[in-house]
Amino acid sequence: MTAPLRRYGFEDAERCVQCALCLTHCPTYRLTHDESESPRGRLAMLAAWDRDEAPLDPSMRRALDHCLGCLACEAVCPAEVPYGKLIDRYHEVTASPTRAPSVRLLVWLTHQHGKAAWLHRLLAGLERMRMLPLLKRLAPGRLRTAVRLLPDPYPRAVVPHGRLVPKGAAGDGAQRVSLLAGCVSSLWMADTYVAARELLLVLGFTVDLPDHALCCGALARHAGDSRTAQALRAELLRRLPVSQPILVLDSGCLAETRAACGADGSGGTPVYTLTTFLEAHWPPAFEPALRQPERIALHVPCTQRPEIHDAQAVGRLLGRIQNLTLQPIPIGHGCCGAAGSYFLREPTMSDAFGSALIASLGASLPERIVTTNIGCRLQWQSELRRSRLGIPVEHPVETLLRACPRAGPREGTGS
Ligand code: SF4
Ligand code: SF4
C-alpha cells in the first residue's frame, strides 16, 4: 500500500479528534461563532489542503490568516495537536503575514538595532515637538494602523546597559540576574525597563543588561520567517550570560527565550518573567504599600493564559501591595487583538477585538490597568484614548516600584 500523498507537511492536523474542547478557548471563535474560525475548523482545512482534497481558496485563506497564534487551543487539546508548529508551517508555506509591508518592516527592525534606535530617537523627538498626535491623525492607510498603537506619551527614556549593583553590596555579593531588553519593548516600554532595573536594585539584586536590545525571534516566527527567527535566537544565546537567571519583562518573550536558552524542558539557563521571579524571591522585609487606596484592573494576556503559574504569580505579587484592590478583567473574547504583528496584518479583526476591551471593564472603572505584555498595553492605551478615558496602563513592576519604600538599598555603581 502506498502512503497517502501529503503536499505541505500538515500530517499532524489529522491528530485532531474533533472533540471541540478547544472551541470556547479560541478568541476568533468566541468573536465570530464560526466553525471555520475555530482551531478544529482550521485543522480540517489544513488537512484537506495537504491531501489535495481542497484548494486553498480565499475564504479558507482568510480564516487561517485570522488565527492569532495565541495557542490557547494547544494548551487544552487532549490529543496534543501541535497547533503552533502547524500554523507556523502555514505561514512559512504561504508567506501570508509578510504580504503586509508594515509587518516586513517590523520584522526587519527586530534585527536592525541601530536603525530601531534611530527610529526611537526620531519618534521621541516628534513627541518633544508635540507632533506625534498630529502624525497619528494624519497618517494615511496602513501607516495610521501602525502609528495608532504608538505609546502616548511616547517614552523618552533609553534602556540602560551594563551591570548595576545595589548600594552597599560588594558587587558579586548580591544575587545576579540578567534582564532581557526585548526588541519592541525596549523601545516602547523603555520607561518600564528603567522602573524594572530600579526595583531590582531596591530589592538588592545585581542587574546585568546586554549592551543592546535582543530579540527572542517571536515576531519573525509568527510572520513565517523562520530563518530570521533562528538567527535571532542564536544571537540571544550568544550574548546573554548563561550562568545566572534570565528575566524577561514582556510575557510575550517568555516561550521563545526559554526555547532559545534550552530552558523549555531540556535543562539550560532558567528563564522567568520578571513578575514570576519577583514573586518567588520577594524579600520579606519589603512591605509594599501605595500612598492612597487604588483599584487596579489586571489584564492577563492571551499568550500568558496557558502559562497558568505565570499568570497567577502576577496576581499574587500585586496582592502583596497594601492599599491596592485588584479587579480581574473578564476574559471577554479572549484576546485584545494586538497579538504581535496581527494588528498590522489583520487590522479589521484587531479592531473588533480591541473595541470590546472598554466594555469588559464593567460599570465601575478602575484607577489603573496593569498588564505584562507590550502589545496588550498599547492596544489598551489606544482604546482608552478612543473612548476619552484617562486611565493609565502600566506594567506590574511600575505599580510595585510606586509602592516600595525607597529607604532600602538603592542603585550603586555600574561596572
Ligand atoms: S492559536 Fe488562538 S486564535 Fe488560533 S486557532 Fe488556536 S486558539 Fe484560535
Ligand atoms: S481540542 Fe484538539 S482534538 Fe479537540 S477539536 Fe480541538 S484541536 Fe481537535
UniProtKB/TrEMBL annotation:
<dbReference type="InterPro" id="IPR017896">
    <property type="entry name" value="4Fe4S_Fe-S-bd"/>
</dbReference>
<keyword id="KW-0411">Iron-sulfur</keyword>
<keyword id="KW-0408">Iron</keyword>
<dbReference type="InterPro" id="IPR004017">
    <property type="entry name" value="Cys_rich_dom"/>
</dbReference>
<feature type="domain" description="4Fe-4S ferredoxin-type">
    <location>
        <begin position="58"/>
        <end position="89"/>
    </location>
</feature>
<keyword id="KW-0479">Metal-binding</keyword>
<dbReference type="InterPro" id="IPR009051">
    <property type="entry name" value="Helical_ferredxn"/>
</dbReference>
<dbReference type="GO" id="GO:0051539">
    <property type="term" value="F:4 iron, 4 sulfur cluster binding"/>
</dbReference>
<protein>
    <recommendedName>
        <fullName>4Fe-4S ferredoxin-type domain-containing protein</fullName>
    </recommendedName>
</protein>
<dbReference type="GO" id="GO:0016491">
    <property type="term" value="F:oxidoreductase activity"/>
</dbReference>
<keyword id="KW-0677">Repeat</keyword>
<feature type="domain" description="4Fe-4S ferredoxin-type">
    <location>
        <begin position="6"/>
        <end position="36"/>
    </location>
</feature>
<dbReference type="Pfam" id="PF02754">
    <property type="entry name" value="CCG"/>
</dbReference>
<dbReference type="Pfam" id="PF13183">
    <property type="entry name" value="Fer4_8"/>
</dbReference>
<dbReference type="InterPro" id="IPR017900">
    <property type="entry name" value="4Fe4S_Fe_S_CS"/>
</dbReference>
<keyword id="KW-0004">4Fe-4S</keyword>
<dbReference type="InterPro" id="IPR012257">
    <property type="entry name" value="Glc_ox_4Fe-4S"/>
</dbReference>
<dbReference type="GO" id="GO:0046872">
    <property type="term" value="F:metal ion binding"/>
</dbReference>
